[in-house]
């Protein structure tokens, strides 16, 4: 294959559910091991499926089938589908929808974020769920419900349904060519991609028959096998067995896939379709000429010779005539070259899983892609001796009956896939193994990575953590950096979120293991965010108290942006104060000068500036900044209102002046409100001041040490929490007044400017324009109380929910959280580092907390060097049962805990022989089979919804009176109907038997009665609700 061939199409994603295989890993295992997935059914299983017992006893009835598990279950909530809509939807639509999502996931694409065009080409069988189950319920086929039933079941809506639910905006085409449907869909998708109608395309097909666990009647001379085995190309071939399954692939032009770094799984070199026309025995008969022409055209379009094909995945239905015609068609294409004997293996996936009709072609296609990937040819089953009508000896073909390595030397592995439909539509695809990709560099090894997982529900989130844990255990060679990169950049961010910073594979495994059990391990954060709501961010710059020896060293060594910001501050501080910031950060306990106010304040200022730079480089930008005391200097610089030189001048010159009063004052934090603190200071007003109001339960005092000590002793005696702050200067108190003139003179040359980022002042409580940040402002900043609580409250009420503290240890996050709870706003307050903890993991955990609250982190910023997209586990569907049984099974179905009757709440209508004007419905409501009723809770109890009574009234009125508008009046809910137990209640404790009575007359009325299964009183059924309704035309 030429790398520049613009007609080649890459297979970049796949998904499927096949008999005996819930996913493609299990499908390949079954193929590799030669597992025949046909099941044999007992009389009890067939009876449970509604098969007539007399039919089961018929000698021609074959009790076998290839089935899927849990076809009645679906994750409706994931796709935003209501329970009622889900149970009216054909399982073919449901399963195909899930597989389409998985195929996109498998390729590393998030359809919710992809801005390009993705097409859908898909086909399904006629809905037997509609014909076997829904159609027998008259109420469901009436307006307006019939239209919803139609679009949820008709195969014509399969493709567009997927496009709608996944927000895919490319061509959306439903395909139907009988057995060749899904391979024709692949061909049409390729044509659409080559015509540039879309960037990528989903293609596939599905077949699900209802009743599902049922056999079939064998007829001599028919196409069905008498014993439930498919023996393709064998002398004993006597028919096929129909099966159920679904397969979806994601396709993209090869050149684009390679340039975009997509995971190319195989390459489609060419494909073709045609029709037999009328020159054959009959409409349903195959045509040797038609098949051969389709294969030759596909090879011609692929630009390869037939002799280069080493494997053919045949249509291979296991009928004597059909198999012989297929090999004859292949010989027309490949010729009779004696030297090419046994050069091309053939096989049929139908021997293992049956004939999947609309999904038959995609099953063979996926099987062949998997074989190319694994470089192995799986066995074709049930072959012992060749069909006597086939002369394999003089052909290039042989049936591959065992697992064998697919060795080709220097020749690329190349295969063909055929699928032929009743009616004569033939399809053939030429596949080749993926080219040796020029993989992007692996994500560089770092001291820690952030791993993000999300889901649509809390239970799914736990399951996703469990799947990821097991996946990493099974794939030890995956780089942690690539896993983190792939989780962040290829998965859709959903409502329930888990973010985990981990330095090693073992730490990640332990964390995921805990998360799988619903816990939040160290280094992890859980959150829940509202879709579409982007929270606003506040950068918070604190004052003193967060310092510790060794802070910032790890980030300085690992993060270039952090290093650059500190280096700039170092140059400015050296020019202003004559000492080295970087040297101070490198100092140990014995040589550190952090106890000096004129050192610690510039150091904390520089770190705050560097934290802000690093956060911004990671894509977290402030919507507003606020500073606390000396923190306002860094806030003003980050907002753009002060140059670095002016900001350094303020912090250095002011802190030097503060040394004059160093040791003369103290500050203390108390668990008091502002009013309580003022009351506690009565009698001390000339010696102690309220310096800071941090939150409703946190106030800082400042003043003379002796007086501070007395106040704290009094508070301790009263059981009030209080402690001294690690400062020896009483800022925000009269003790700083003597510094006024010298400070104003020292800062007279400042050149403040307009702020580029909004800043709210904790001196005035107002927004800062910028030019007012001259010398007078910074004197007031030192002298006046800090109005932190007021400012935080204003930001919370203005819609700012995320607060990020720019400090080496959080000292204000608790106060912000108290304010957030006080005003009842969603959000979070996070720090940057934590004293004594490894720095990158700490900051990553904080970043994860922001993401967990819904902040849209631009992950490319965290991975500037990129990474490889590696395989990850698919979404853990939280499937529930959504099913409406056929009326014939209603009685047995009710005993088994499945839905009975036509209407899910009413059941079937009956007419009383003694009261001909009265209609009666009786059914049993059970949380086990109507789990969505459990979502309606009042004070924790499951209560039958009031809206459900109205639904029953409307439906009973419509069924009793006929179509037309209904008006409901005089609604009376006599008492609430509660289901016993909790969310995990057993079916036996959560059942209520209903009777719903409707009487005709001048004023029609309806009444509902309910009793529990243990009701034994001779008294009439208790009334739960009454209402009157009538029809108006």
From TrEMBL:
Top-rank taxon: Bacteria
Domain Ketosynthase family 3 (KS3) per the UniProt entry, residue ranges: 6-433
One Pfam family cited in the UniProt record for this chain: Acyl_transf_1
Record's keyword terms, sorted: Fatty acid metabolism, Lipid metabolism, Multifunctional enzyme, Phosphopantetheine, Phosphoprotein, Transferase
PKS/mFAS DH domain residues: 903-1033
Database matches in CDD domains: PKS
Record-given protein name: Polyketide synthase
Protein species of origin: Sorangium cellulosum (Polyangium cellulosum)
């Amino acid at each position: 294959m030429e790398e520049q061939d613009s007609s080649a199409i890459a297979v970049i994603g796949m998904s499927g559910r096949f008999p005996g295989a819930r996913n493609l890993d299990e499908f390949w295992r079954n193929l590799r091991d030669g597992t025949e997935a046909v099941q044999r059914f007992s009389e009890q299983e067939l009876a449970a499926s509604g098969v007539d017992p007399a039919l089961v006893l018929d000698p021609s009835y074959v009790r076998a089938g290839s089935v899927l598990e849990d076809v009645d279950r679906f994750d409706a909530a994931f796709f935003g589908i209501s329970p009622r809509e889900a149970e009216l939807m054909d399982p073919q639509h449901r399963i195909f929808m899930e597989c389409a999502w998985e195929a996109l996931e498998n390729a590393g694409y998030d359809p919710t974020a992809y801005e390009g065009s993705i097409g859908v080409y898909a086909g399904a069988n006629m809905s037997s769920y509609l014909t076997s189950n829904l159609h027998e319920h008259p109420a469901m086929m009436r307006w307006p419900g019939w239209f919803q039933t139609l679009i949820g079941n008709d195969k014509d809506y399969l493709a567009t349904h997927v496009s709608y639910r996944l927000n895919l905006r490319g061509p959306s085409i439903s395909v139907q060519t009988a057995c060749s449907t899904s391979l024709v869909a692949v061909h049409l998708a390729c044509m659409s991609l080559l015509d540039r109608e879309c960037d990528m395309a989903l293609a596939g097909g599905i077949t699900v028959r209802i009743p599902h666990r049922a056999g079939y009647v064998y007829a001599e001379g028919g196409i069905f096998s008498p014993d439930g085995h498919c023996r393709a190309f064998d002398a004993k071939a006597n028919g096929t067995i129909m099966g159920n399954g679904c397969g979806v692939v994601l396709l993209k032009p090869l050149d684009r896939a390679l340039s975009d770094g997509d995971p190319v799984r195989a390459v489609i070199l060419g494909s073709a379709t045609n029709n037999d026309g009328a020159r054959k025995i009959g409409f349903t008969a195959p045509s040797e000429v038609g098949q051969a022409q389709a294969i030759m055209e596909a090879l011609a379009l692929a630009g390869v010779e037939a002799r280069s094909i080493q494997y053919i995945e045949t249509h291979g239905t296991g009928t004597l005539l059909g198999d012989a015609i297929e090999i004859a068609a292949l010989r027309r294409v490949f010729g009779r070259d004696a030297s090419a004997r046994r050069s091309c293996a053939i096989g049929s996936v139908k021997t293992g899983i049956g004939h999947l009709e609309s999904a038959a072609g995609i099953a063979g296609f996926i099987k062949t892609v998997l074989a190319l990937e694994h470089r192995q040819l799986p066995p074709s089953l049930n072959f012992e001796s060749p069909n006597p009508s086939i002369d394999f000896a003089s052909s290039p073909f042989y049936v591959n009956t065992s697992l064998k390595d697919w060795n080709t030397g220097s020749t690329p592995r190349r295969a063909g896939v055929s699928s032929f439909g009743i009616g004569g539509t033939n399809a053939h695809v030429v596949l080749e193994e993926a080219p040796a990709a020029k993989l992007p560099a692996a994500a560089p090894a770092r001291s820690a990575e952030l791993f993000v997982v999300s889901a649509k529900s809390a239970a799914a989130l736990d399951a996703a953590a469990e799947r990821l844990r097991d996946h990493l255990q099974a794939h030890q060679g995956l780089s942690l950096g690539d896993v983190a990169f792939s989780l962040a950049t290829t998965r859709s961010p959903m409502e329930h979120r888990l973010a985990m910073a981990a330095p090693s594979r073992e730490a990640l495994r332990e964390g995921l293991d805990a998360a799988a059990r619903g816990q939040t391990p160290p280094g992890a954060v859980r959150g829940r965010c509202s879709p579409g709501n982007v929270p606003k961010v506040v950068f918070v710059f604190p004052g003193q108290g967060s310092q510790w020896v060794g802070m910032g060293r790890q980030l300085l060594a690992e993060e270039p942006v952090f290093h650059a910001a500190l280096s700039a501050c170092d140059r400015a501080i050296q020019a202003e104060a004559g000492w080295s910031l970087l040297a101070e950060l490198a100092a140990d306990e014995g040589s550190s000068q952090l106890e000096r106010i004129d050192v610690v304040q510039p150091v904390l200022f520089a770190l705050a500036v560097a934290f802000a730079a690093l956060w911004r480089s990671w894509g977290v930008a402030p919507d507003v900044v606020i500073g606390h005391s000396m923190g306002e200097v860094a806030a003003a610089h980050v907002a753009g209102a002060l140059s670095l030189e002016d900001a350094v001048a303020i912090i250095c010159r002011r802190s030097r002046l503060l040394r004059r009063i160093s040791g003369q004052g103290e500050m203390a934090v108390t668990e008091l409100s502002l009013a309580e603190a003022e009351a506690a200071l009565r009698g001390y007003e000339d010696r102690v001041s309220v310096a800071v109001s941090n939150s409703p339960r946190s106030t800082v005092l400042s003043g003379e040490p002796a007086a501070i000590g007395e106040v704290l002793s009094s508070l301790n005696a009263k059981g009030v929490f209080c402690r001294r702050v690690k400062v020896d200067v009483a800022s925000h108190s009269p003790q700083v007044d003597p510094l006024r003139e010298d400070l104003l003179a020292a800062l007279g040359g400042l050149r403040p400017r307009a702020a580029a980022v909004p800043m709210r002042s904790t001196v005035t409580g107002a927004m800062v324009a910028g030019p007012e940040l001259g010398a007078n402002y910074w004197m007031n900043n030192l002298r006046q109380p800090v109005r932190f609580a007021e400012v935080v409250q204003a930001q919370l009420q203005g819609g700012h929910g995320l607060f990020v503290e720019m400090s080496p240890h959080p000292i204000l996050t608790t106060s912000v959280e108290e304010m957030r709870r006080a005003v009842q706003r969603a959000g979070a307050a996070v720090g940057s580092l934590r004293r004594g903890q490894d720095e990158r993991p700490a900051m990553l955990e904080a970043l994860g907390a922001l993401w967990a609250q819904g902040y849209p982190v631009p992950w490319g910023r965290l991975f500037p060097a990129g990474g490889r997209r590696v395989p990850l586990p698919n979404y853990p569907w939280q499937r529930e049962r959504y099913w409406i049984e056929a009326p014939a099974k209603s009685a047995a179905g009710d005993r088994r805990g499945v839905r009975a009757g036509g209407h899910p709440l009413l059941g079937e209508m009956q007419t009383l022989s003694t009261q001909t004007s009265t209609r009666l419905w009786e059914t049993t409501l059970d949380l086990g089979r109507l789990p969505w009723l459990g979502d309606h809770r009042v004070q924790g109890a499951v209560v039958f919804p009031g809206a459900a009574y109205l639904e029953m009234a409307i439906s009973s009125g419509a069924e009793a009176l006929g179509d037309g508008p209904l008006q409901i009046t005089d609604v009376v809910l006599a008492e609430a109907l509660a289901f016993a137990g909790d969310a995990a209640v057993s079916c036996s404790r959560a059942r209520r038997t209903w009777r719903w009575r409707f009487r005709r007359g001048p004023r029609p009325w309806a009444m509902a009665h309910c009793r529990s299964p243990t009701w034994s009183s001779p008294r009439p059924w208790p009334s739960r609700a009454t209402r009157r309704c009538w029809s108006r035309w």
